[in-house]
């Protein structure tokens, strides 16, 4: 009886979890704590019932390295929050509607699915729909508060909010590249080329150099260098459009400012990474907790107050160092294990996938390598990106993985 109930419950979960995932993703863009919590609660309930009643689901979860890596990160983060006394201020940040805690939980719940009725074209359409929403937000900021053209007249929080749009583009733009390089209709390809050019302009206008490189790597993974070179004229057209837009602003706009700094700006090494390595000595095993103000507080006390610097930095600007600072050595190892397990699973699944499913695995691989393999080496952890990418990845792995 239990086995039959488990099979029926698995069929119900296969139909319900994709819809709950869609609700979760929409809540990341349009924050609704109540609706997001409802989607999370139902997902976890189905996950627990499946593990209790369905033996195949238990075996699938028990043998999945992504599940264990995600669980390790979750447990370490909670333990650190308790041990360092940041449970009140730090844990809600870790567990917020756009934080990794809920993304990890809903992600591992999706790993148990066996018979999801959603097609891979549906996954592609969903990712492109989220990119449309993101581009609309970017255009709204660009046109109504032209921070990219005249950044000196806007506060730093507005600047970072605009710049971080570029990080989310790294997650979603590879799906646009997949659609572009795998379509046969000329009018669709022309429309996608124009859309890609718009994303090039919007990304460049953020002045986010790490995101520029990650964007190129993500597209390179999807297209291959041969196809990417064929698309080079379109990138040049986008660059000319960008120069035209930037020229209408002040000489200190974000794009020209980033170009002037170039790749020779080594202030991050001297002012961020070196101090962070020194801070790790004081909390090597437990870290300093997930309190969002912990880094600035430690930086002020141990660097600025000692006359070693004059400006307080907001974060470690490296995701591995960031986790090491927050959750100690175990947290850094859990984070690296999770990202590594996901990338390896996606690579293997892509190599074995059918013609229909391979492009989606390739897009996800480009997203992870661009956002975490490249940008992750020069920027702090971006939780909204993680909250979108991890559940989407586990959904695809559950439906068509190994």
Automatic annotation (TrEMBL):
Keyword Transmembrane helix among UniProt keywords: yes
Subcellular location: Membrane
Keyword Transmembrane: yes
Protein's membrane topology: Multi-pass membrane protein
Signal peptide positions on this chain: none
Pfam family name, one: Wzy_C
Listed transmembrane segments: 12-32, 38-55, 67-88, 120-142, 162-180, 210-225, 232-251, 323-346, 358-375
Domain O-antigen ligase-related: 196-336
UniProt keyword terms in alphabetical order: Membrane, Transmembrane, Transmembrane helix
One GO cellular component term: membrane
Main localization, broad class: membrane
Stated name of the protein: O-antigen ligase-related domain-containing protein
Source species of the chain: Oryzomicrobium terrae
């Amino acid at each position: 009886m239990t086995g039959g109930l488990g099979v029926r419950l698995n069929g119900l979960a296969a139909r319900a979890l994709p819809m709950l995932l869609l609700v979760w993703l929409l809540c990341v863009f349009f924050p609704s704590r109540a609706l997001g919590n409802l989607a999370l609660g139902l997902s976890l309930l189905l996950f627990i019932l499946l593990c209790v009643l369905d033996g195949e689901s238990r075996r699938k979860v028990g043998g999945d390295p992504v599940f264990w890596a995600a669980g390790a990160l979750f447990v370490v983060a909670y333990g650190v929050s308790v041990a360092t006394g940041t449970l009140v201020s730090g844990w809600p940040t870790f567990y917020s509607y756009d934080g990794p805690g809920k993304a990890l939980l809903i992600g591992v719940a999706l790993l148990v699915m066996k018979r999801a009725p959603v097609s891979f074209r549906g996954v592609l359409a969903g990712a492109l729909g989220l990119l449309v929403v993101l581009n609309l937000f970017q255009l709204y900021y660009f046109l109504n508060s032209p921070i990219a053209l005249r950044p000196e007249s806007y506060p730093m929080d507005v600047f970072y909010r605009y710049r971080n749009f570029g990080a989310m583009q790294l997650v979603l733009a590879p799906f646009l590249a997949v659609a572009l390089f795998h379509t046969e209709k000329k009018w669709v390809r022309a429309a996608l080329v124009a859309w890609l050019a718009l994303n090039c302009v919007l990304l460049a206008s953020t002045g986010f150099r790490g995101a520029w490189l990650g964007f190129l790597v993500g597209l390179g993974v999807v297209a291959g260098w041969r196809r990417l070179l064929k698309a080079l004229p379109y990138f040049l057209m986008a660059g000319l459009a960008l120069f035209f837009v930037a020229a209408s602003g002040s000489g200190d706009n974000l794009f020209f400012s980033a170009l002037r700094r170039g790749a020779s700006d080594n202030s991050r090494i001297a002012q961020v990474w070196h101090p962070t390595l020194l801070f790790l000595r004081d909390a090597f095993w437990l870290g300093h907790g997930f309190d969002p103000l912990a880094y600035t507080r430690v930086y002020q006390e141990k660097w600025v107050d000692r006359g070693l610097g004059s400006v307080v930095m907001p974060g470690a600007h490296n995701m591995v160092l960031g986790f090491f600072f927050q959750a100690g050595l175990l947290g850094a190892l859990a984070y690296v294990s999770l990202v590594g397990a996901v990338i390896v699973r996606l690579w293997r699944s892509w190599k074995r996938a059918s013609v229909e499913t391979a492009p989606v695995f390739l897009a996800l691989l480009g997203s992870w390598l661009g956002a975490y393999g490249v940008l992750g080496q020069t920027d702090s952890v971006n939780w909204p990106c993680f909250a979108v990418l991890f559940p989407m990845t586990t959904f695809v792995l559950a439906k068509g993985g190994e």
